[in-house]
Amino acid sequence: MTTISEAFSAGMEEVRKSWGWFLTVGILLVILGCVCIATAKTATTVSILVFGWILVFGGILSFVNAFRAWTSSGVFLFLLSAIIRCVTGYLLLRHPDAGAEAVTMVLAVLFVVGGIFRMAAAGVIRFPRWGWTAFAGAVSVALGVVIMVNWTASSAFFIGLAIGVDLILDGSSLVGFAGALHSLFKEGSYKAA
Questions:
Q1: Considering the domain boundaries, does residue 3 fall inside one?
Q2: For 121-176, how does the pLDDT look when each residue is reduced to its tens digit (9 = 90+)?
Q3: 15 found inside a domain
Q4: Neighbour-count burial of 156, counting CB atoms closer than 10 A to its CB (0-12 exposed, 13-18 middle, 19+ buried)
Q5: Global pTM?
Q6: Residue 96: which domain range?
Q7: Can you tell me the distance from the alpha carbon of 152 to that of 98, in angstroms, rounded to the nearest whole number?
């Protein structure tokens, strides 16, 4: 009979063997992130168009679901959801620049409000090293204000830039994880405590 420790060790060995896959995916994500940053305006437009198509398809599915639930009392909610999704998706597909402006403004407001709450919570709770959280909140508020002040100009590239930075960070974390797997868990050297 296999013990939990042996099963865990076998599972870790399987993960360790996949370090090359994690490294490859991480490098590809970093490259894709750099491409998104280099072509931030195009990446923003593509993101809005993809979001528009997702809403249209979601609206179609909600519409189909409304007919399947025709006898239930929730049919009008399904129809309303379908209409809102389809119309919003259509508008994003028809006017991606205006959609980018709207999404950018929502993100700017989210940064400001989230940053204010983060600063307030850090100041009230005063957990260990709360100053860093308050600082992160202040940076978030400043970023939101800068985006709002330059709203129309920043909406053309901000979403693509944000997606690019996110891809680079995700890719970098996978590269780091792959390196840790490769160096820490040499073949057969890992044993569960």
A1: no
A2: 888 888 778 888 888 889 889 988 988 888 888 888 888 888 888 888 888 888 88
A3: no
A4: middle
A5: 0.68
A6: 22-184
A7: 9
When computed from its CA atoms, the radius of gyration of the chain, rounded to whole angstroms, is: 23
52 part of a folded domain: yes
Determine the residue type at 38: A
The pair phi, psi for residue 69, each rounded to 5°, is -105, 25
Domain count, the chain: 1
Alpha-carbon 137 to chain mean position: 19
- Helix residue spans in the chain (DSSP H): 4-17, 19-38, 40-68, 75-94, 96-125, 130-149, 151-154, 158-184
41-91 residue pLDDT tens: 999 899 999 999 999 999 999 888 888 767 667 778 888 888 999 999 999
189 domain residue, yes or no:
no
